[in-house]
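Standup notes
- DV: blocked on the single-chain target, sequence here:
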Amino acid sequence: ITNVENHALALKSDMLAIMSSFGEEDVNGKEGRDALAAALKEAMNARLTELEGFGGIEGVYFPSFVMQ
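- DV (later): unblocked, structure below
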């Protein structure tokens, strides 16, 4: 958690970049949301590994999902 808190700005930037690459059709349905979650997890772990030598993100969960 400390590593996530210390690098929150970089992680948020990476998350926004990933989310902006997914369109409405890409996240339509469970498979699409699972793909988005996997991409977010991979990006965050890559950034944390680069900065701290350890990823540590085990899963990404969406308590709600709103498309605009």
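- Follow-up: DSSP finds three helices and no strands in the chain.
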